[in-house]
Amino acid sequence: MTDMMGGGKFSGDSRGATVAFRTEADFGVAERDEWLYAPAVGVGPLRFGMTVDEVVKAAEILGQTKVSECARHHAIFSPTWKVEVHRRGAAPYPPAVTAYVSQAMGLFCIAADAVHGPQVAYDGIPLTGRDLSELESDAIAYAEAMDVLFRYTPEGYAGPDDPGVVMRGQRVGQVLRSRPLFMVTRDGANTEWDSMPSEEYHPNGQSTA
């Protein structure tokens, strides 16, 4: 069962069943850092509500950072900054992680790059850099095995039944790979989807290979 930014079946209790999902090694992808996601808390060393300075300090574990101010497309949102985190020695490449910090709410969105970002799993399902159809198949298999919900974004990307996980498609060469956003709502927004930074609409049409 599914719905748009609402439930198919996915999330939560895995008692009584075991579902095995392929790792990136199975797809021939180089090993990544693994970050843990805690709903409404944060991802890896980053915690929702952090200031820009706190994000920069916490991100040192991954690499160097670049801070810039985001364009204000909606007056309802307070000034917002983008913190791009590049792996050490990989500055010419796209950032591995992009964090968005609003003046009113602090850190509210963390994006993991499909190619360079850390791997983040949701109850055993890898979310970063996946073929989107394979990710959808895993979500459906999990839902059927666990009798829980999963959800589709308005664009049709499948992911966990957690409003704090918004799946995006990022073009890598000739294919789209999964670019997960981990979020809480920001000032004036009703949902995480409404809170999504305008910069995160662009990876769909950009090659990052």
Fill in the keyword field for this structure.
209 residues; alpha+beta; 6-stranded antiparallel beta sheet; 3-stranded mixed beta sheet; 3 helices; globular
- Uncertain runs are 8-18, 23-30
Shape: globular
Gyration radius, in Å:
16 Å
**Whole-number average pLDDT?**
84
| Structural class by secondary-structure content | alpha+beta
How large is the share of residues in beta strands?
25-35%
| Helix residue percentage | 10-25%
Describe what this molecule looks like in 3D:
The protein has 209 residues and is α+β, with helices and mostly antiparallel strands. Helices cover 12% and strands 31% of the residues. The protein contains three helices and 14 strands. The strands form four sheets. The protein has a six-stranded antiparallel β-sheet. The radius of gyration is 16 Å and the shape is globular. It starts with 33 loop residues before the first strand and ends in a 14-residue tail after the last helix. The model is unreliable at 8-18 and 23-30 (pLDDT under 50).
Set out the fold topology.
Blueprint (H helix, E strand, L loop, with lengths): L33 E2 L1 E2 L3 E2 L2 E2 L4 H7 L4 E7 L10 E8 L9 E6 L3 E7 L6 E4 L2 E2 L5 H15 L3 E3 L5 E3 L4 E8 L2 E9 L8 H4 L14
Parallel strand pairs: 1-9
Antiparallel strand pairs: 2-3, 3-4, 5-6, 6-7, 7-8, 8-14, 9-10, 11-12, 13-14
